[in-house]
Protein: Hypoxanthine phosphoribosyltransferase
Amino acid sequence: MHGDIENILMTEKEIAECVRTLGAKITEDYRGKELTAAVILRGSLVFAADLIRKIELPLTVDFIQASSYGSGTETSGTLNITHPLADDPAGRHLLLIEDIIDSGVTLLNLRERLKSSGALSVKTCTLLSKPARRRADIEADYTGKVIEDNFVVGYGLDYNQKYRNLPYIGILKREVYE
Ligand code: IMP
Ligand code: MG
Structure:
């Protein structure tokens, strides 16, 4: 285990099982439809790469990036779309893929903006959710795991752009960011 990690929240095996379950549910719910996975950069990169391979549907992938976080561990509340979707969402079933819902500001804003884009449907999928910190009224349509209020890294999730490459999800030691 990396020295900056307090303890492991999800092992590689637990993550794989969780992703498999999400993929199976999504496959079932969208049966007969074509899906566009709208991957929210950068944190969802690893999750999305695994999840799309567990979805047995015709599928396209697009990327969107929004930022409200600075270098700290708190959201600023305002959201900028720093990288819009490359393809026109009109006429598509969009599934927004997020790594973690914290305040909910990011996902709520993106979902509402994309709902007025002419998409046939807009749903959301998150690997992790921290309901204790919610400020915006949103729950994802698909949630992998509900967690307590700890700052977590690994499997795509970062602190100051680091730790994304850890294969597990771990709680970051407070001394690293305090
Ligand atoms: P929200 O807008 O507050 O819901 O923030 C969502 C974004 O904050 C996520 O996409 C992550 O990039 C980041 N974030 C929130 N909590 C954590 C965490 O515990 N570890 C790493 N990133 C986090
Ligand atoms: Mg993120």
Remarks:
- The radius of gyration is 16 Å.
- Residues 12-29 form the longest helix (18 residues).
- DSSP finds four helices and nine strands in the chain.
- The pocket of inosinic acid (ligand 1) is lined by residues 43, 68-69, 75, 98-106, 151-153, 157-158 (CB under 6 Å).
